[in-house]
C-alpha cells in the first residue's frame, strides 16, 4: 500500500501557525478571566454567548461546544438558576427544547464581548481595509477544511 507523501510546511507557514496559536491562547486566557468577572466558567460564558445570537436546541449546543448533551444540560441548569437562560419548546417541534438567553443573559454576553480588550485593541490599530482582509482570510481558512465554528 502506498503511503501518501507529505511535504514539510515552509517556515512562513509554521510562523503563521505559531502566531495563530498565540492569538488563540491569549483569547482563551482573557475570555476565562472575563467569564470569572461574571462568576461564570468558560463553558458557561461560551454557551451564553452562543445563545445571545440565537436560541438553540440542546443537541446543537452540545455539537457547537464539542461536548456531551448531558454536560450542556448541567450548564443550562446553572445558567437558568441565575436567570440568564431559559428553556422553551421549539415552535417547529414541541418535543424539542430550545435554550434561550434572557434579557439579562444577553446583557451579560454583551458585557463579556465588550471586555475582551486583547482582541479589540490590536484590531483597532488596523485600518478597516486591513480588518476586512483579515476577516476574509480567516473565513477562507475556515471554509477550506471541514471545520465548524
Report on the structure:
The structure is a single chain. The protein has helices at residues 11-37, 42-53, 58-65, 69-81, 103-114, 117-124, 128-144; strands spanning 56-57, 85-90, 93-101. The protein is mainly alpha-helical. Helix 2 packs across helix 4 (69-81) and helix 2 (42-53) crosses helix 5. The model has no long low-confidence stretch (mean pLDDT 88).
Please describe the structure with a list of short key phrases separated by commas or semicolons.
single chain; 149 residues; mainly alpha; 3-stranded antiparallel beta sheet; 65% helix
How would you summarize what this structure contains?
This protein is mainly alpha-helical and 149 residues long. The protein has 7 helices and 3 strands; from the N terminus they run ααβααββααα.
Amino acid at each position: 500500500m502506498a503511503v501518501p507523501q507529505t511535504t514539510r510546511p515552509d517556515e512562513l507557514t509554521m510562523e503563521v501557525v505559531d502566531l495563530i496559536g498565540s492569538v488563540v491562547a491569549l483569547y482563551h486566557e482573557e475570555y476565562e478571566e472575563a467569564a470569572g468577572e461574571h462568576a461564570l466558567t468558560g463553558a458557561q460564558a461560551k454557551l451564553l454567548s452562543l445563545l445571545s445570537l440565537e436560541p438553540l436546541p440542546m443537541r446543537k449546543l452540545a455539537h457547537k461546544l464539542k461536548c456531551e448533551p448531558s454536560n450542556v444540560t448541567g450548564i443550562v441548569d446553572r445558567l437558568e438558576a441565575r436567570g440568564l437562560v431559559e428553556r422553551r419548546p421549539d415552535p417547529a417541534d414541541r418535543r424539542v427544547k430550545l435554550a434561550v438567553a434572557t434579557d439579562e443573559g444577553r446583557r451579560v454576553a454583551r458585557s463579556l464581548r465588550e471586555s475582551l480588550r486583547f482582541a479589540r485593541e490590536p484590531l483597532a490599530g488596523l485600518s478597516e481595509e486591513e480588518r476586512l482582509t483579515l476577516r476574509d482570510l480567516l473565513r477562507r481558512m475556515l471554509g477550506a477544511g471541514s471545520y465548524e465554528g
